[in-house]
Amino acid sequence: MAGSLDSARDDGSFFTCTNVRLGQRLFVTGFDLRHGDCLEGMADIADEAIDLVVTSPPYNLGIAYGRYSDRQDREGYLEWCHQWAAQVRRILKPAGSLFLNLGASPSNPLLPHELVLRLRDLFVLQNTIHWIKAITIENDDGELVSRGHFKPISSPRYLNDCHEYVFHLTPEGKTPIDRLALGVPYADKSNIARWGHTQGRDRRCRGNTWFIPYQTITRRAKDRPHPATFPIALAENCIRLHGLRENLVMLDPFLGIGNSAVAAKRCGVKTFIGFEIDEQYMAEARRRIG
Ligand SMILES: C[S@@+](CC[C@H](N)C(=O)[O-])C[C@H]1O[C@@H](n2cnc3c(N)ncnc32)[C@H](O)[C@@H]1O
Hints:
Blueprint: E1 4-8, E2 14-22, E3 25-35, H1 38-43, E4 50-55, H2 74-91, E5 92-102, H3 111-118, E6 124-132, E7 134-138, E8 144-148, E9 163-170, H4 190-194, E10 209-211, H5 220-223, H6 232-242, E11 249-252, H7 259-267, E12 271-276, H8 279-288
The structure holds S-adenosylmethionine (SAM).
The site of S-adenosylmethionine (SAM) has 22 residues, from helix 1 and strand 12.
């Protein structure tokens, strides 16, 4: 069941409500998407107002965004990241979660780690998740099976880069998570009886490797008009791992074309706030949430 109520606000922001049935409960997702700089936008949000942040900032790897320049000097970039992360820390609840998606490039492999180290005075690194974009495994018949997409690198030195990080940063390192929301069945069913913590359920924690391929697209400009997105399913996993409860307030300071917003809608998050500096990406995000 879905309904919708849209209205433009005086400050130019956009608000829409969408009703989603989740199990037997009716959740209403309210969207507050603002075109503008997230540092200015977050300054207007009250302390400890946000439950959950799922975001992917620019990585300073020279990506050709529409409006933002992704080539800053390293120190300036890290300092800017510390500024927006300090705002996130201020507005996050003590038991909140920041899921920070970061990638590297073969010639710049330490950047994600440097950034997380820089944020150590603000957050505790509670979990490190590997987002696997492409993988080859051997099946039981000894056959190699490949899944997913990656950008091939032609190099005598570097491997194809098939993963990114999702750092789960929390204010105190004690944020409870819903491990079994992403749980999987045991391969060996004897484990159900072996481990007391299963309580007889055939479900175990999936672990910190998430294989989430990009969707196959044929018309880049129409289907994914942004140079650096994460899949909706990645943000959905983060939301479900943090734990779906009523009245969740979620933020993405670097909204891009709104994949985190679509995930929030699918999960029935109560309120979603997003900032994006590029008007065209923001327009696409609004189109996507319908
Ligand atoms: C890595 S992309 C995010 C993509 C997004 N996760 C998605 O799936 O569409 C980073 C985004 O941050 C935006 N951006 C850069 N500086 C910003 C700022 N100060 N405030 C808000 N958005 C900004 C860029 O325009 C870019 O779209």
